[in-house]
Amino acid sequence: MLKCRTVWKKLAPLARASSTVCRQNVRRTGLTSSRIPACVPVAHMSTGPAGGGRENQLYILLVGAACVGGAIYTYRTVKGDSQRYQDRIEEISSRSYKRATAEPATPIQSEPSAVDATETEVILEPEPEAAPSLEPEAAPSLEPEAAPSLESEAAPSPEEPSPPAPDAEVAVPETTELPPGGPAPDSLKVPSHTPYLLIGGGTASFAAARSIRARDPGAKVLIVTDESDPPYMRPPLSKELWFSDDPSVTETLRFKQWNGKERSIYFQPPSFYINAEELNGAENGGVAVLTGKKVVHMDVRGNKIKLDDDTEISYDKCLIATGGVPRNLQVIERAGEEVMKKTTLFRKIEDFKSLDKVSRNVKSITIIGGGFLGSELACALGRRSTEYDLEVVQMFPEKGNMGKVLPEYLSNWTTEKVKSEGVKVISEALVKSVVCKDDKLEIKLKDGRLVKTDHIVAAVGLEPNVDLAKSAGLEVDSDFGGFRVNAELQARSNIWVAGDAACFYDIRLGRRRVEHHDHAVVSGRLAGENMTGANKPYWHQSMFWSDLGPDVGYEAIGIVDSSLPTVGVFAKATAKDTPKAATEKSGTGIRSESETEDTATSPVASLTLAPTVEQHQDEYGKGVIFYLRDKVVVGIILWNVFNRMPIARKIIKDGEEHADLNEVAKLFNIHDD
Amino acid sequence: MSYCKQEGKDRIIFVTKEDHEAPSNAELIADDPNDPYEEQGLILPNGDINWNCPCLGGMASGPCGSQFKEAFSCFHYSKEEVKGSECIDNFRNMQECMQRYPELYPQEEDKESSQAEASSSSVSAAPTEGSALPPETDSTPATSTSDSTSLIDNQTAS
Q1: A350 touches B: beta carbon within 8 Å
Q2: B149 Cα to chain A: minimum distance (Å)
Q3: Strand A483-484's sheet: what is its strand order?
Q4: Can you give the residue ranges of the CHCH domain (chain B) (predicted)?
């Protein structure tokens, strides 16, 4: 016992010296907690008491040997790295895009050996943990520090898995000879850094891109989407495109708006965007779209994402606008390949194209789902049913179309209208099983009814895409799904979420997630504003609309849930109150525009069906429906009453308790045109 | 004559035109024009141009965005007698840029641009520019470019 103490007293100064050095090194290495414990016991072990006075010399010898060994190792690795780096530069500049399979091997090899080395090492080489300090923002091509790879530029380099990253960061010395601007970014396919990164190429993303470009002059925005198309709008896919007279509509994707003007569903023609590789060099910035690439991993600490081809892109500000994927019925998924081949989950352009083709070639299509998409598609296909000898069936568990949105009396009325569009509606239908027999699908319902059809369209909801939540460590909302963000659409410091995937806090109406086009626009624009420093909450309430044939059209705003108590104020409709008439008058093409735009009117495209309005008693021709929550109006539907959305928006914004809603309804002048 | 009925939790009121003739006594809260949260129009309360106004369509964000911003800013702050007369170079730059992207900025804008200028009179004093300035000056929804871009714009006009 005492001997130990004397030995320790003798060794103390040496131990202190070595531990100081160790501590210094640790500080320099940027401090990974896992390594400190490794360090300290090592010190003790290497100075294990040998007894007597010779242990000093032994100790010095050991330490000396270790130092020399360490120095040699560092020298070799750094040299090797710089050599590899040079090779890499040459390789890239010679534009050969081959995957260096040797490279993953060497980093991985040297990494474990490096890890071993550190554990036995007392002193570490002057770790270019100088490297992290070089990182932060800097030039476009700088590799962020957490990159496990040895190469200092991102680009198409094979990456190691992230778990060894912390070790790799310290263990594997990165070359300190980072050239000022890195290799010329233009020669790379994809920029390794972008100030603004938008994940997802839909409506919200495009709105954000526009917002960013408007507010930050010369901004460089990179949109990454796994679709093969640049940003486009979705509503026409289930509405206008189906009513087009042009036989090549599936190719051109152009539709005629009600005001007669034609436009494409793409927000902008391809010339609007710049190429991804030119993004860094563009002096006035621009918007670049990278199609066909999926973001598979997000490193929030390192401010970067990884694509499915292993490219890494770092960002300053990131927007997640990944939208969602259509839900499928479990019975269909379990029914097997044959059934799946005859099922369409409708969302994208390719789904529209395939459904259009199918509708011309089959005898019967069944739409499962009675919400917005299902009903719109049913009406669109129903209109074709006479032309193509097509049977259109729509089935859903609710009592009537839009059963979850409209109060029962209106839902029933709407169902009648849908039926008059040529759709066979089967309500209160729960699908029990689907089988494929003799090349036809047989849908068996829970109550025993059997429906035979050729093709199924499943419109049963949207599953928000939160694949990145895990790797990014972002919160997912359990009630509404989607990424949980605050009132300013922010998930974390440099990350915002907008569109269908965002579960946000609405100051007026509480936490919600909205899956409508206008919301994507509003939230995308707001996210873009906040990414450029605006710090504004979600305030401007988005609206939505739907047309079910030429007679039934409505605009809505706020929380429109049929389980809430409602008050509806109706007047008799005249022939002037139809969706067509409304847009003709305002001269706009799409409903949400009519508030802001004042475009020139031009001769209207004629419709094939003339609106007929029956004149019997309970005719819900036009009116306003208020949805109440605790006596406060939280949602409003303008039923065949158009161009009054600003009033509705104001009422919701006020959030007041109104004693007599008939008085509030007067504000809308529903009897006027 | 109006009548009312109740179906479960839903109340339905049918009203005639006469019923709604009397002005409403529903009270709405007065709006604060300087509310920072609200969507702003083309001109902000402090006099600056709101480049993010949906009414501009994609003009400020497209490839010719910076040229457009320069030209329009110059015009907006111009104090000359003929407003914007010193901005000819800016507008020329803008036009040159736009000519490079005929798809985005279609050149048959003469009709619409005069309308455009008329509707942008809220920001300018002079109704139309002299022939000195190129036709495609201001941006507004009337131009067919922003027609393609305006579809995602939505805000309450202030």
Answers
A1: no
A2: 6
A3: A483-484, A502-506, A510-512
A4: 64-100
Residues of A in contact with B96 (CB under 8 A): none
Helices (H), A318-429: 330-335, 337-341, 349-361, 372-388, 408-420
In angstroms, the CA A519 to CA A534 distance is 19
ipTM for this model: 0.72
Closest residue in A to B112 (Cα–Cα): A600
- Kindly report the backbone phi and psi dihedral angles of residue A264, in degrees, each rounded to the nearest multiple of 5, phi listed first: -90, 155
Burial of A470 (C-beta count, 10 Å sphere; 0-12/13-18/19+): exposed
Looking only at the bridges linking them, the beta strands covering A254-256 and A262-264 are: antiparallel
Q: Encode pLDDT of B35-92 as tens digits.
A: 888 888 888 888 889 898 888 888 888 888 888 999 999 999 888 888 888 889 999 9
Is this model's pTM higher than 0.80 or not? no
Chain B residue nearest residue A209, CA to CA: B61
- Closest residue, chain A, to B118 (C-alpha): A598
- In whole angstroms, give the CA distance from residue A613 to residue A337: 45
E strand intervals along A123-182: none
Burial class (CB in 10 A: 0-12, 13-18, 19+), A531: buried
SS3 B12: strand
In chain B, which ranges are continuous DSSP H helix? 65-77, 88-99, 110-119, 144-150
| CA distances in angstroms from B46 to A467, A468, A618, B60, B153, listed in the order given | 43, 41, 52, 19, 23
Q: Which residues contact A517 (CB under 8 A, 6 or more apart)?
A: A203, A233, A234, A235, A544, A592
Q: pLDDT tens digits, residue range B13-47?
A: 998 888 888 888 888 888 887 788 888 888 888 88
A489 Cβ under 8 Å from any chain B Cβ:
no
Q: Order of strands across the sheet with A450-453?
A: A431-437, A440-445, A450-453
Give the whole-angstrom CA distance, residue A273 versus residue A145: 31
What three-state secondary structure class fits A198?
Answer: strand
Window A:199-258, CB contacts with B under 8 Å: 203, 206-207, 209-215, 217-218, 233
* Chain B residues close to A230, C-beta within 8 Å: none
Contact A538, A509 (CB under 8 A): no
In the structure, what pLDDT confidence band is assigned to residue A121 with cuts at 50, 70 and 90?
very low
A596 Cβ under 8 Å from any chain B Cβ: yes
Tokens coding B87:
């901005």
A92 part of contact set with chain B, CB < 8 Å: no
> CB distance from A592 to chain B under 8 Å?
yes
The domains located in chain B, with CATH, are 42-107 (1.10.287.2900)
How far does the CA of residue A348 sit from the closest CA of chain B (Å)?
A: 18
Hey, what are A430's tokens? Answer: 């729960």
| Unique residue bearing structure tokens 């939540």 | A469
Positive/negative CA dihedral, A102, A108, A112, A115 = positive
Give the span between the Cα atoms of B146 and A589, in whole angstroms: 13
Using the Cβ of A527 and the Cβ atoms of chain B, whether some distance falls under 8 Å is answered with no
Answer yes or no: do A263 and B51 touch at CB < 8 A.
Answer: no
Mean pLDDT of the A553-579 span: 85
Contact B51, B85 (CB under 8 A): no
Q: What is the mean pLDDT of chain A?
A: 79
| Residues A425, A411: Cα–Cα separation, whole Å | 13
The number of C-beta contacts closer than 8 angstroms across A and B is 195
Residue A356, burial from CB neighbour count under 10 angstroms (0-12, 13-18, 19+)? middle
Q: Which of B10, B16, B56 sits opposite A568 (nearest CB)?
A: B10
Which ranges of A483-574 does DSSP label H, i.e. alpha helix?
517-531
